[in-house]
Amino acid sequence: MSKKDEFKEFALNNKYLQTLVNSGKYSWQDLYETYDIYGTDSEIWSSYKTKTKKETSSTETVKNLFNNLKNIDTDKLEENITSLQKALGFLEEIVSLRTEKKEEKKETNKKKKSTEIERFFDD
Residue 15, CB half-sphere, CA atoms under 13 Å: how many? Predict the structure, then answer.
């Protein structure tokens, strides 16, 4: 068996090599030269595997995200957004009422103090 045929068999058994070539990071020539220099049992192949795993995991994450987006029921999503908007509006109303009451209380306290001072000087 020729060195070229051995590399072909090695490439068939290690599918991550095809991913590296398809991504454009390496050419078959680059990988063949590495194979020719280091052989099949070198630690260098584990670094290639690691690079492929990182790319695959990020690709899978994006695919999972798109699959989840496909499965979203837009009618339910719209209902949930509407109910959330209502709840936020209700909370905003409560906060504004409390703020108004605090301001009224401050004004009432100011009036009481001013009338007390006036009463003091009237004597």
Answer: 2
